[in-house]
Specification:
With 838 residues, the chain is an alpha+beta fold. The protein contains 33 helices and 25 strands. The N and C termini lie close together (10 Å).
Length: 838
Amino acid sequence: MGTTTPPRTLAEALRARGDESLAGLLRARPDLLNPVPNDITQLATRAGTRASVVRALEHLDRFALQTAEALAVAPDPAPYATLLSLLTGDGLDDGEQRDDAGAAITAALPGALATLREQALVWGEDDRLRLVRTARELLAPSPQRPSPTGLGPTVAEATAGMSPGRLQEILAATGLPATHDPVSAVAALSALFTDRTRMAELLDTAPVEALSVLDRLVWGPPYGEVTPNPTPPVKWLRDRGLLLPVSTRTVVLPREAALHLRAGRAHRVPEPVAPVVAAAAERDPQAVDRAAAGQAFTALSTVEELLSLWNGGGPAILRAGGLSVRELKRTANALDATEPAAAFWIELAYAAGLLASDGETDERYAPTPASDEWLDLSAQDRWTHLATAWLPATRVPGLVGGQDAKGRALSALGPELDRSAAPEVRRRVLALFAELPPGTAPDPVTLLERLRWERPLRTGPTTPSASPPSASTASASPGSGEGSDLRSRLALWTLNEAESLGITGRGALSTQARALLDRGEDAAAALLAPLLPEPLDHVLLQADLTAVAPGPLERPLAETLSVLADVESKGGATVYRFTPGSVRRALDAGQAAADLHAFLAAHSRTPVPQPLSYLIDDVARRHGHLRIGAASAYVRCDDEAVLNEILADRRSTGLRLRRLAPTVLASQADPGSLLEALREMGCAPAAESAEGDVLITRAGARRTPPRTPPVPVPEGPPAPDDTLLGAAVRAIRAGDTAATVIRKDPAEGGPSSTAPSGSLPRTTSAETLATVQAAAMTGSAVWIGYVNAEGAASQRVIAPVRVEGGFVTAYDHTADEVRTYPLHRITGVAELAEDGMG
């Protein structure tokens, strides 16, 4: 700006900044960019709005916030020395404030102050530091919202409206000379409370019970309730102004007196240094990687099992959205997992785009077409797909089973599960893991302490406090981290989810996860691949009608075997059991007995046991012996005796069967119900088409239409990139030039602009044309008012290059580019003074 005059407003302070500093402000507070401010004044106004200031305060670390809180109770403006004293104390507290703590505060304060300045929460030189008015209102004390520091109002604020007579009584009780000027009386009382020697002498005369009351109020809340006839200790304090009335039943400890009792400190425990994340255990990095890879493989198996479980159409969707409690429990049992774990796997598959609603009238969840593509990927690529879907997801499975603000239960895949802070917490937790040496597992307690220090505030300043407690039972107010409980829970959920997903192993960050965070999916997949077991192409058949898979199976083998047999147990080896029902399921899927024999012989490292061969042949012999069709339904069989047995069976009564021919029965039940009922009776019927062919039931035929994964709900505006920041700074600078540029006075030869300061210029069409033509000839800049096609008005500084055909082509300083403007949309034009663009 070419001047050393101290800024008088926040706008002037911002105007004096360089472009890089302005870009830093917009990067730290992206909400200021929506839309891009027209000029510096509008930027300063927007930076001082309540919503924007609250958002900025919520992103401060604890010491930067404590610095802002100290400025909120300091004089306005406050010199740097006063601010430092509020954080370190005056050194007269009998050694309670240790020298090393004071040195740490002294070293950290410039950085905290720089952060506040960068975010436009503090402005002014070091001898006149000013906290923006909105932040001071949010952090300063009031009866409805005590300061986070626990300090009350000043003597001047607490005595506003007090009668002169009452002030004289207080002066007399404290031994101060009488004065009839209320201002002088308040100044004298304030001077007493800030004088260490005289204040100590006054407190030496106080009853012990009175000192006890002060001890309970000194660190806040500073308000207390009193009865119409207070106890002698309270009366002694009230008479001397150490407790000042706020209402008929409420008193307050004035700020100056509290600071004396605190030895000048605004905070009981300043925290200038971030807590160190301690190591809980140090493990072999290779063991960590192997454990994480094992968890990753288990995660893949679980998601594949979930997709298989819902392959033919998953559970129905509740009217309010999501899964019912019963369906979640059923899925958890099928996955052999707890309900919270099942909710996590379901939400993870949904976030990865593998599950979605089918959109039918009877809406259900089902795998998406993308799930088939995912299953065709290699194991390491499937894992990176899940991990990269988990990192930015804003849906929080840990909330499932809880209640929303209206007391309604939160269900898996239901609404109200998005928490915009989740991705930031998740990545920050993993970043803290990454800062530790490889193989080191962090201590969760210190990890949470670090997170609370980095983001201590969520909604604390805007949350009204409860009514003031009584003076006899006053206790310290809760810390400023009260609103960070959600972040703590998100961090704990992140620890569990990262371990389940294989991001961490045995509590430490794996090498493949470090690569995923730093170098991307390809690097992580390359590191994970050697650690995953190779799929097997064989099983071990046993005489007890079971098959043992000693490891993961190749996908075609696993799919066929899952149809032919039921999974009996999982673990290092998977045990499958062959039953009549499982064999019939394979026959229903179109396999013949010969196909099943050949399949088992080809994939078994042991001979096919005779009992298994007999089982397959026996089920195949009876399979399809009965035929089910549509009559509503019919049963036909070449063996009349079989139909006679069915008719005689009491269990067939509900089917309403009747004989149409010696080998045909008709039923009022639909074919599907008839098929299931006869199977429950021990028969092995097969469905047939209208042409008499056996219908083959293919497993996993149901898919949703193509679906995109759910879009994460961002926390505030997205972070702007460098290109947008550069353009925004140029636009703000140019707009500020247009708003503050010096216009030539009409008496000096300029057009007769009648626009008042801050509004668009107004000139006639002829004057507008003549002025821009002259500017094009001389290469000078002019100030114009312009209304675009949408009716939005703006003011701009342009340098005309060409004027023809009713248009002016000019370099627009506001947009930093050459543009063409219709002359009829220019409301007016004014020439600039010779130093207008300087």
